[in-house]
Design goal:
alpha/beta, 12 helices
Length: 269
């Protein structure tokens, strides 16, 4: 946090990469200046350059007035580029230039502008694979990942689940005006046994829905709620290791003919 080095935060969706970026900015010497966020995955392809660098009036059809880009808004502060792997390949060279030289031009303008911006980028993609596939520039990757940070998925941080769940119970209960909701040791065991494919975001949403439902329908137990509400069958991590088709094929060691296929489909349905 105390340096101006670029940071690349890698991790699955829902692990809290944006909170890591916020923590880095808040503890940096740029904390009194803005933290500007851009979700690269939500920017239409044709508007990337305008979004990053801005444009002048009349630069393209529909540009009825000038606009300041995100780099200029973040001058002296931090620019958080979420889902950096979504940036089109043809724009990555322009992004690399402003990272290297701190210079850019607005769309439709010849004037070169200077900015002093720290970059924190985040992605849920494997950028090394993207590089091999020709979808991401290797030089841009090395420019962004001066300090790489990997945020592990929640299934690898089971010791954090109780802390996070109790935190969400407190904050969500206060926000929606509900009291008396507490998690027992048995509740925590049930939460820990689930692999949380949606990570912390899914945990937060499940806790919020449980608080609403238990308050509205006479205190349904967390175990009952989890078994009926989570869109994935609520099993222990061990049970997730073997799929229904694995079990079927291990019990039925015969050539895979039409009868076997029909029987397998019935079991899966």
């Amino acid at each position: 946090a105390k340096t101006d080095s670029n940071v690349l935060i890698e991790g699955e969706t829902g692990t809290g990469k944006d909170l890591v970026a916020r923590a880095i900015h808040d503890q940096s010497k740029r904390s009194q200046h803005p933290l500007i966020k851009v979700n690269c995955g939500s920017v239409p392809r044709d508007l990337f350059e305008s979004e990053f660098f801005g444009h002048i009036r009349g630069a393209f059809t529909g540009a009825i007035k000038g606009r300041i880009g995100r780099f200029q808004l973040a001058d002296q502060g931090t620019l958080f580029l979420d889902e950096i792997g979504e940036v089109p390949l043809d724009l990555q060279s322009k992004l690399l230039r402003v990272l290297q030289e701190g210079q850019f031009e607005r769309v439709g303008e010849d004037r070169t502008r200077n900015v002093n911006v720290r970059i924190i980028a985040a992605t849920n993609r494997d950028l090394n694979k993207e590089i091999l596939a020709g979808k991401f520039r290797e030089d841009l990757y090395y420019r962004l990942s001066v300090v790489p940070i990997h945020v592990p998925p929640l299934r690898e941080r089971q010791g954090d689940i109780a802390t996070l769940a109790n935190h969400f119970v407190t904050t969500i209960s206060n926000r929606i005006g509900v009291s008396g909701v507490k998690l027992s040791e048995e509740d925590i065991k049930h939460l820990v046994s689930y692999p949380w494919p949606g990570n912390i975001r899914e945990l937060q949403n499940v806790i919020e829905r449980y608080i609403i439902v238990s308050n509205s329908f006479s205190g349904e137990s967390l175990e009952t709620y989890l078994k009926t509400s989570i869109p994935f069958q609520f099993h222990s991590a061990k049970a997730h290791m073997e799929s229904p088709s694995d079990k079927f094929l291990s019990r039925n060691n015969f050539p895979f003919d039409k009868g076997a296929k029909d029987s397998l489909e019935k079991q899966q349905i």
